[in-house]
Write a structure and sequence with these properties.
Number of helices: 7
Helix content: under 10%
Length: 750
């Protein structure tokens, strides 16, 4: 650890990981399946894992990825709209959200049960999952979870149908958002239906909700960033034979929303857009999981299919007016439209050892095949006529003269990806002297990506021309392929001083596939781009301890890590709005994480969690573009150095099955920046935030009613910033967090 870590002597830790047992003054045990060798007490797993119970979110009327991030200090989230987000763990990040970038592979894997659903800059926002728990695995998980888990993994574990009981719940929430916000409401219902005793059951969940916008568009006097959500999920469980258990699920989601951006040069929570900005996300998930007792081991087969269509519409009025018409008013209404059609098939087989004996192991094979077709264009009513006059080109037509998708469309493009990945993996733990666990694992993998690109329209036909002097109406095309292969090893040792105290150390490798760049027009940008970029990888070295004290009334966990990341896939965003990725330089991430929980009495519990992270360029990164070079010791973007969460719970028994439960939490995130250094440009500050939530709940048997408030002090305002480079634009784009919201929640169980 370097000098930046020396000042951190103490920190608190995390409470949401351990739900309190109301009938006891001891902390409830929480089991996880992160090691894929069966369920284990999280306190016995030698890794930094944060577990969140769904009640920690739903009692505040919450449940999206941003709410999860507030409960995990090591996790950061940038969000521009519903489903337009980027997850960061332990400072492993080099770029923000770029909706048109299809090559930026995720560093954090997101799973729903056995299904991988990760998409960089666009992880799905599913509120219908009927969760049992959320497991956040901090640090590389490449051996068991693959190339997308280079920084960590978020696992959302759902409740499974129960064979012999009919039961369910209905929950309604109504709230009001401050500033320019209005009324919000949502309804969630779940029912468990036994179909055949001890053999077949269904679990059905539905969610519908409407959240008001809160950013005022001064161009039309409306709030355009409202969100409507409709989701449903059906899960079935079949005991086909005494040895074979089958789980099947179908999840469908349809989200329509806006973009949460305001301008720094306007009044707070205010934007100006001549078009209605929007985001849409339609998703279907299918999964079939088989668990078979094969005698000597358990066989798990997981088959998943994902289909997802997204649409992102952002205002391009300032860019279009500035780049094409020299900033001369009036502004021209231009829409920046990006649509994705994504399909993905994934199959995994695992053999897992049974409980008992000194050796625990898992081994398996994984295959995935997917397609992503991105279509983007910039429809701009009146563009052709204005361009014809400005450039003395009578009768100009975007479609006829520059091969755009339609008239009045100055850029049209498609980027299509076909990808395949195959891997085999194994991990084993052997217990020596009933105290020392030695773990070793390895994943071997190979992935191929075929990339096809076509750009047309005035801004797409730029390979040998500029918008000022168009010389060619021939669309720009590019075809390339990239293949990567490698190995991810992992080693760990855990020593149990006794059943309540464990020391551990681990070393693991993370890996991310390479990819293909879009071409950069030299005459317009003054820069060429490499056609492909190679994989990058890292090693994570970690040591920690897990401790249960005072007869399971106190938990204290601590970990420290050093991450060495090399051949980093650096993102070069050019002033001409084009960009490319190249391998350049090394990054180090150093940090400590502490986690504690205190059960003060049967009624009261408190906790504080914190993390300190210092992630920086270990050497000067030379990109070939002087303005894009990263200085040595420059801090990574989008990652705060310090983050902390504090929670408090208190329950007041009233007798006869009645109680009042009081809860509050505070999430602090330190400031961060949108690039490594000011010299690179696109460098803006994302201010620190303090999110305060509180709730009071009355419970009476099967019923409960709660009052809640989120972001009560409006201490969390900005999630992301896009730096302004256009003189006529009124400042930076600020992506706003929902301001203070207060409401009531009613739940009935049956």
């Amino acid at each position: 650890m370097n000098k930046h870590l020396m000042g951190l002597a103490i920190a608190g830790a995390f409470a949401a990981a351990h739900a309190q047992d109301k009938a006891s003054d001891k902390i409830e045990k929480v089991e996880v399946t992160a090691t894929r060798t069966g369920a284990a007490d999280v306190q016995q797993v030698p890794a930094a894992i944060t577990v969140i119970k769904p009640d920690s979110l739903t009692k505040y009327g919450q449940g999206n990825l941003g709410d999860i991030a507030n409960l995990v200090p090591a996790l950061s989230l940038q969000e521009q709209g519903a489903g337009v987000n980027n997850i960061t763990i332990r400072g492993l990040v080099v770029r923000g959200i770029v909706p048109s970038e299809v090559q930026d592979a995720s560093l954090v894997a997101v799973y729903i049960d056995e299904m991988p659903v990760t998409l960089k800059s666009g992880n799905p926002d599913l509120k219908v999952l009927d969760l049992e728990r959320i497991e956040v695995l901090q640090g590389p998980q490449g051996t068991l979870y693959g190339a997308g888990a280079m920084a960590g993994t978020v696992r959302q574990i759902t409740q499974k149908p129960e064979f012999n009981d009919f039961f369910g719940a209905v929950e309604a929430v109504a709230s009001q958002t401050s500033k320019f916000g209005g009324g919000n409401h949502n309804l969630r219902a779940t029912v468990n239906v036994p179909v055949k005793k001890d053999a077949l059951a269904l679990r059905v969940t539905g969610y519908t909700g409407s959240d008001s916008g809160y950013v005022l568009n001064q161009a039309n006097g409306k709030t355009d960033n409202d969100v409507s959500t409709n989701q449903g999920r059906i899960a079935a469980r079949l005991r086909a034979t005494p040895d074979l258990l089958i789980d099947a699920s179908v999840t469908a989601s349809n989200i329509k929303g806006g973009i949460n951006d305001a301008y720094s040069g306007l009044a707070p929570y205010t934007t100006s857009s001549l078009i209605q900005q929007a985001s849409k996300d339609s998703l279907q998930l299918y999964n079939l999981t088989l668990n078979y007792d094969a005698g000597v081991a358990n066989l798990v087969s997981s088959t998943s299919y994902l289909q997802r269509d997204t649409l992102y519409i952002n205002s391009g009025q300032y860019k279009a007016t500035a780049f094409i018409f020299g900033g001369q008013l009036p502004l021209i209404a231009s829409s920046y439209v990006i649509g994705n059609k994504i399909t993905n098939f994934a199959q995994e087989f695992r053999l897992q050892s049974k409980a008992g004996g000194p050796l625990k192991w898992t081994a398996g094979a994984f295959y995935t095949q997917g397609k992503r077709d991105l279509r983007q264009d910039q429809p701009t009513p009146g563009f052709d006529a204005r361009f014809a006059i400005a450039k003395n080109f009578p009768g100009y037509n975007s479609q006829l003269n520059d091969n755009a998708f339609t008239p009045d469309d100055y850029f049209s493009g498609t980027q299509n990806i076909d990808s395949k990945e195959a891997a085999v993996f194994a991990e084993a733990t052997y217990t020596v002297w009933d105290k020392l666990d030695l773990t070793s694992g390895l994943r071997l993998f190979r992935g191929t990506q075929d990339f096809d690109l076509k750009f047309s329209g005035l801004f797409g036909n730029l390979f040998n021309s500029t918008p000022a002097k168009p010389q060619s109406s021939i669309p720009e095309t590019s075809n390339s392929s990239e293949t990567s292969k490698g190995a991810n090893p992992r080693f760990a040792a855990a020593y149990r001083l006794d059943q309540d105290h464990t020391l551990y150390a681990s070393a693991g490798k993370g890996f991310r596939y390479g990819g293909n760049n879009q071409p950069v027009p030299f005459d317009f940008c003054g820069q060429n781009a490499p056609s492909t970029f190679a994989p990058d990888s890292l090693w994570n070295f970690e040591a920690g301890s897990k401790n249960t004290l005072f007869d399971r009334r106190v938990i204290v966990n601590a970990s420290a890590y050093l991450i060495k990341w090399k051949d980093v896939q650096v993102f070069n965003k050019l002033p001409c709005t084009y960009y490319f990725t190249q391998n350049a330089g090394k990054i180090r991430s150093e940090g400590v994480e502490l986690e504690t929980f205190f059960k003060i009495s049967r009624q009261a519990s408190i906790g504080v969690s914190a993390t300190f992270n210092h992630a920086y360029a270990a050497e000067k990164v030379v990109t070939g573009i002087a303005a894009q070079n990263i200085p040595e010791d420059a801090r990574v973007p989008y990652s705060p150095k310090f983050a902390a969460t504090a929670v408090a719970n208190y329950s007041i028994p009233l007798g006869a099955g009645e109680e009042v439960a009081l809860s509050a939490n505070l999430a602090h995130r330190g400031e961060s920046y949108t690039n490594f250094a000011a010299s690179q440009g696109s460098y803006s500050r994302i201010p620190s935030s303090n999110t305060v939530n509180a709730t009071a709940i009355y419970r009476n048997g099967l019923y409960e009613i709660g009052l809640f408030g989120t972001n009560l002090t409006n201490g969390a305002k900005i999630s992301d910033v896009t730096t302004n480079t256009i003189a006529i634009q009124p400042g930076d784009n600020l992506y706003m967090i929902r301001p203070r919201t207060v409401g009531v929640r009613v739940k009935a169980r049956f």
